[in-house]
Amino acid sequence: ADVKLGLAAALTGPAAKYGVAIKNGFTLAADEVNAAGGVNGNKLQLIIEDEQGKKEEAINVFKKLIFKDKALLVFGPTLSNSAFAADPIANAAKVVAFGTSNTADGITAMGPFTFRNSVMEADVLPVTTRAAVKHFGIKKVAIIYGNDDAFTKSGYDVFKGTLADQKIPVTTTEAYAKGDVDFKAQLTKIKASNPDAIVCSCLTEEAANIILQTRALGMKQPFIGGNGLNSPKLFDIAKGAGDDTIMGSPWSPENLTPANKAFIAAYKAKFGSDPDQFAAQAYDALHVVADALKKIKLSGAIDKDRIALQQALPSVTIEGATGKFAFRKAPAVTGKEVGYDAQQEAIVNIAKGGKFILLK
Amino acid sequence: MLEQQLINALSLGSVYALFALGFTLVFGVLGVINLSHGAIFMLGSYAALLLIEHFALPLWLAMLAAMLASGLIGLAVDYLVLRPLRARNAPHLAPMIATIGVATILTSLAQGLFGAENKRFPVGTIPEESYNWGNLHVTAVQIGIVVISFILMLVLLAVMRRTQLGRALRAIAESPKAAYLLGINVEGLFYLTSFAAAALGGAAGVLVGLSFNAITPFMGQPMLHKGIAVIILGGMGDIRGAMIAGLFLGFAEVLTVAYISSDFRDAVGFGLLFLILLVKPSGMFGKVLERKA
Amino acid sequence: MTATANSNPATILQVRDLAVSYGHIEAVKGIELDLKQGEITALVGANGAGKSTTLLAISGLLKPQRGQVLLGQQDLTRLAPHKIVQSGVVQVAEGRATLTTLSVAENLALGAYTRQDKENIAKDLDWVYSLFPVLRRRKDGLAGNLSGGEQQMLAIGRALMAKPRVLLLDEPSMGLAPLLVQEIFRIVEEINRTGLTILLVEQNVRQALRIAQHGYVLENGKIVLADSGSNLLNNPKVLEAYLGG
Amino acid sequence: MLQLKNISKNFGGLQVLQDVNFNVPQGGIFGLIGPNGAGKTTVFNLITGLLRASGGAIEFDGQDIGKVAAHKITERGIARTFQNIRVFKEMTLLENVVVGMHDHMDYSFGSVLLNLGGYRRIEAQARERALELLSWLRLDHKAHMLADSLSYGEQRKLEFARALATKPKLLLLDEPVAGMNPAEKTELMEEILNIKQRGFSIFMIEHDMRFVMGLCDRIAVLNFGRIIAEGSPDEIKNNQEVIEAYLGKEDSE
Amino acid sequence: MDWWDGFWSTYNTVIFSLGVNAMLALSIYVTLSCGLLSLANAAFMGIGAYAASLISMQTGLPFPVALAVGGALPALVALIIGIPTLRLSGVYLAMATLGFGEVVRVVVLNMDITGGPLGLNGIPLKTEWWHIVLLLALTLYILARMRRSKIGRAFEAIKEDEVAARLMGVNVAGYKLLAFVIGAAIAGVAGGLNAHYTFTIGPGNYAFENAVEILTMAVFGGTGSLVGPTLGGMILTLLPEALRDFNSYRAVVNGLILVLVILYLPKGIWDPRRIRHWLKTFSQRKPQAGGSN
Ligand SMILES: Nc1ncnc2c1ncn2[C@@H]1O[C@H](COP(=O)(O)OP(=O)(O)OP(=O)(O)O)[C@@H](O)[C@H]1O
Ligand SMILES: Nc1ncnc2c1ncn2[C@@H]1O[C@H](COP(=O)(O)OP(=O)(O)OP(=O)(O)O)[C@@H](O)[C@H]1O
Ligand SMILES: [Mg+2]
Ligand SMILES: [Mg+2]
């Protein structure tokens, strides 16, 4: 019989740029698994629903996938905010909610059925910062971040902590809001504070624009960023101006492991464009689940099978597009059972000639 | 740093003013807050982008064509949506909400057609390097925006103040019925206004697309918010008011970043709007012509 | 009133079987009117009889249910409102439709909006200013600052700027002080003497019929009486119903 | 009962009223006439609290009402009609009149919520009274129609009924017969006399001389913001200054 | 019964939202019925949601207390800002209240107790279906009673002609404030209910778009009676669910429906006169398709 796996992704609305990549990653992986005969003879069937990046929609979609479609597990939702709304539903129904793009703190504290393979910024940014400081000999930095977005704000919080830990003074901290396109006022202020580098907790499109405007103001500082910058779109917009940007992420197109090379080639063949990190993590997530499914025997009683899957997942380890992957139990919270975070090495990249290469 | 911030403010303010020009024109003549203006602005940007990417048109030509295209969209919106509402004398809320529907439609169509990602104009569409005087940096687009928005405003003002057409538009703004009885082709001028306003919106879209490299289906929304603040601050339908209020908002935002905190930048527009309305209930430049009894 | 020599001038505007409705309410129920070249024709009737409705339909602002308005051979009901003005039928609407946010001079300039003979406009402006000297004195002020009577004069002056062949006046004396009422009627007569055809709607029945060559009485959307002005003024029915006995 | 003492009013630089003094006596009909723009409506707006005087005092029944809020002035017993009709068009005639009784409907929010007897009784009484007022003006047969469907003249009468519903001691009428034909004016004249007979004092602005002279006991004449004459109709009719400023040469209308 | 269980667990959030959105639409209906176009209801909803959630999360107080505070706090804020704001009329009031909403959003964004942009997560699930039914019914009952009293008539009179209402002895400022406060309280309670079944709230949930959405629900349903907003809130909640099959063009269809309703049903979906008219034409000529106009 088919194994039904639900996917709740933001396919329309401003978050669609991630949601669509995520959907692509999943369909690619599912097709691969099915082409190889499925799991224990069962085909994987993806049921994809649009949650529009809105919390109410995420709840509705989760409920539909869990109670109506009887999915064995649900992937998604795309944004951390939506995950805070939807994951409690899954935990209450004892169904695994598997996030591939939720990096915010506290996601996996929601319950034992919450899993994610998205690496938390807290794991990545300290490594990135240390590498950047060493590479450029940085003494002081300025920060710019989006202050009305959960992702960029938590990235900022981590950066702030990291910089304090590593005793790097911050010359000025500037914020912007979603939809802003003109950052010159903030950048002029940063320029006056004369930092050695600019730390940017931003999403790709804003980062690209920020970089371009920085150069237009005659500033030459390199940028340091996290996950949000890890996209070829950065260079579609910023072109060469993005060079010397240092970015840490679990996935890089330059990471030439066989698994990654195969993924990139297959993705290009299927969708005609370069994959990004969101696609890669989605791709890996499906393989993680397929691996877990191999270890269990489906009884056909959905409730039991769901719990069996939850118990099989934590021990899965794979060598995927994002490299070596394993789960680790989320930090404990009193009085509550917790879920599982990703245990993965961060890869530090530097932009050269309009793309990210590994920083040696 | 102050000099650079003043330049930043001037160019940002001009962007707001440019967007608000068309917005306030429709508001002034048709008495409608056309909430699809942001979407039309966005489509103008895409139109020029397509023409340059696929047909390699020179920028000025692409810009004119984009203005034409967005003007036609504005005309279609007027014909299909606003005209029937006028015909039955619908209260103000109706066109406002109908244009929300239009904006939704246009935005999601754009997303279907062009995707959700950011686009930018090809490198070299416009000189990208900045002109430097010592520590001051100004780009060609910045200069372009300031100059173009001032020219457009002056032209629009001259038309409204000094020509028979402008008088006719002001007559319509005050009383369509009186305008009809003067032999003014009121419907025709409604269409013309919607067309012109949308074309101005399209032009703003192209210039914003050029200067910020962030063309997305959603780019109209934040601009619309600012635009609303600007046209209300400037007084209903007041072209000069919109221009001054646009600049004012630009300066307010930039100076907030420079001297207070960037955390509050986006609250400045509406915060000021709120405060100013409390002190002066008809906006900074609005005049009230209401008799009591 | 003396019935003067040219006793049989040509008809310039004809209303044939005109009916106008607001939704389900029929306000004008098939009326006939003839306006003779160069004459004043009065249309009188109680509140809500349908007078303003008739005028609005002639000007094309209301779509008639049926019937025609003929200016010479031309059927006005087929024309857009601005074309009707262009063809020479101009209305001064009820309630002083002055444009209060424009200056007096701008109001007058807009009066000539449809005119093709731009060279004569200045001359006509002088004429209007000589009819209403107060307008010349206030020409740069906002029309909204004029008093009620002055606004009424402006509205009439503005209509004259269109160089109409037929002038429709809807209650020009409403709300005006006695002195001004006399002044307005004097002006209407004066304009008429230049050869302009006028359709005058008035509540001020006595004065209206006194200066009008012809009159119609409208009741509940129907014409109930049509006669010369002076005959109507002495008609016992009119005396009773409209002049308060 | 109403006294204006040295009232002046300016809008920005425009001096609209200057040292206006007059008394409106109890029980009769007092008229205020004057050219367009003389400031008559402004006087009403000052009395009813819609505008504040720039100088001077207004006393009603011996109390200063110059700074009292408009709705409180209504409570004290002054009601008015408007020059350009302001009926509530989307409400029925009956509802229009019941709104006028706002101040006289004393029931608590609680009795509304619980639909208690007190609330129901007061509502029923109000409706009854409203019908009665409408019948004074011969509008009762249209009580349940929307005010919008009334003709101009009927809307003016509805305004009367609504004003009467506030139980005024003094009724201010701003050009009550504007836009009516002579026959209708005659009819309305009778109705106003009726209302006076019922014990209301009336203060009216009107341009129709037959109407004013026929109804008023006393008349004041306002010209360019100043009172230029006050007296009985006959005195006013023959006052040279009034003829020049306002009446014009003898005319029957 | 199995079928029911499955249906209920799949759609109970949607069903909850039906009631909550009906309450929100009613909250703006109250102000509209008094002639006030206030767009602050999203902000009031947010204040209520935050207040109620914080009480649930940080104190051991029972849910009814949390909801009560969620209604009372926005009412208090409305009382304070209403006094200066309600002097404004028409679009100016709309924009000032929109500005207020934006200020609230930014304040919430920059506060620690509210979790800034991350919002509050892990709000306990406390809302049950009968809470919503009860509160919606209570809202409807109170509003219906008010409509039939001098309060409702005062609201209506103010909406039609403020000056005339004032001279009928209506304390215009007072009643406007009352409407504003009642609207705020209803929106706040709705916000509290909503927070306790969506587990998370953030400043983005109560922004410009949400304000406009609430208004749209009311106007879509029709603001002539209580039924209209209730229906409007419910239909616009269901619409996206019903349109799920249109996939990426769902928003287009959504927008189109909005435009069509505004164009062809001027008084909203619920227009008793039109419905009666339809029923009549239907029963009269049976086989002929298409109603008139
Ligand atoms: N916009 C409208 N909607 C519905 N009915 C209307 C409208 N305008 C006028 N009516 C009705 O049509 C009828 C004729 O009105 P009209 O204004 O033509 O009368 P009139 O003779 O000009 O009266 P008046 O002397 O009061 O100006 C009246 O019964 C009036 O109530
Ligand atoms: N709110 C206002 N703002 C500015 N000027 C005003 C205002 N109200 C009235 N005026 C001016 O004050 C003067 C007197 O106006 P008012 O309405 O009192 O005249 P009136 O005597 O009632 O005239 P009418 O007989 O035409 O009704 C006019 O010149 C008018 O333009
Ligand atoms: Mg009329
Ligand atoms: Mg007056």
UniProtKB/TrEMBL annotation, chain B:
Its record classes its membrane topology as: Multi-pass membrane protein
> Can the keyword Cell membrane be found in this entry's annotation?
yes
Keywords attached to this entry: Amino-acid transport, Cell inner membrane, Cell membrane, Membrane, Transmembrane, Transmembrane helix, Transport
Highest taxon of the lineage:
Bacteria
The UniProt entry, under InterPro entries, shows: ABC_transp_permease, BCAA_transport_permease
Q: Where is the signal peptide?
A: none
Q: Does the keyword Transport apply?
A: yes
Where does the chain cross the membrane? 6-32, 63-81, 93-116, 136-159, 241-261, 267-289
**Protein localization:** Cell membrane
Q: Which family does it belong to?
A: Belongs to the binding-protein-dependent transport system permease family. LivHM subfamily.
Its name, as the record gives it, is Branched-chain amino acid transport system / permease component family protein
The top of its lineage is: Bacteria, Pseudomonadati, Pseudomonadota, Betaproteobacteria, Burkholderiales
Automatic annotation (TrEMBL), chain C:
Q: Does the keyword Membrane apply?
A: yes
Q: Which UniProt keywords are present, listed alphabetically?
A: Amino-acid transport, ATP-binding, Cell membrane, Membrane, Nucleotide-binding, Transport
Tell me where in this chain the ABC transporter domain is found. Answer: 13-245
PROSITE patterns associated with the record: ABC_TRANSPORTER_1, ABC_TRANSPORTER_2
What SUPFAM superfamilies does the annotation carry?
Answer: P-loop containing nucleoside triphosphate hydrolases (SSF52540)
Question: What InterPro entries would the database entry show?
Answer: AAA+_ATPase, ABC_branched_ATPase_LivF/BraG, ABC_transporter-like_ATP-bd, ABC_transporter-like_CS, BCAA_Transport_ATP-bd_LivF, P-loop_NTPase
Specify whether DNA damage is a keyword of the entry. no
Listed SMART domains: AAA (SM00382)
Domain of life according to the entry: Bacteria
Q: Name one Pfam family in it.
A: ABC_tran
- Similarity comment text for this entry: Belongs to the ABC transporter superfamily.
Which PANTHER family does the record associate with it? HIGH-AFFINITY BRANCHED-CHAIN AMINO ACID TRANSPORT ATP-BINDING PROTEIN LIVF
Task: Kindly provide the name given to this protein in its UniProt entry.
Answer: ABC transporter family protein
Gene source species: Collimonas pratensis
From TrEMBL, chain D:
| Signal peptide boundaries | none
Where is the ABC transporter domain positioned along the sequence? 2-249
Cross-referenced SMART domains, in alphabetical order? AAA (SM00382)
Question: What are the UniProt keywords, alphabetically?
Answer: ATP-binding, Cell membrane, Membrane, Nucleotide-binding, Transport
What is the designated name of this protein?
ABC transporter family protein
Q: Provide the taxonomic classification.
A: Bacteria, Pseudomonadati, Pseudomonadota, Betaproteobacteria, Burkholderiales
TrEMBL record, chain E:
Mode of membrane association: Multi-pass membrane protein
- What coarse category fits the chief subcellular location reported for this protein? membrane
Q: Which UniProt keywords apply?
A: Cell membrane, Membrane, Transmembrane, Transmembrane helix
* Record-linked InterPro entries: ABC_transp_permease, LivM-like
TM regions (residue ranges)? 12-32, 39-57, 63-83, 90-108, 128-144, 177-197, 217-239, 251-270
Q: Does this UniProt record's set of keywords contain Lipoprotein?
A: no
Cellular compartment(s): Cell membrane
- What's the protein name? Branched-chain amino acid transport system / permease component family protein
Name the species this protein comes from.
Collimonas pratensis
Traced from the root, the source organism's taxonomic lineage reads:
Bacteria, Pseudomonadati, Pseudomonadota, Betaproteobacteria, Burkholderiales
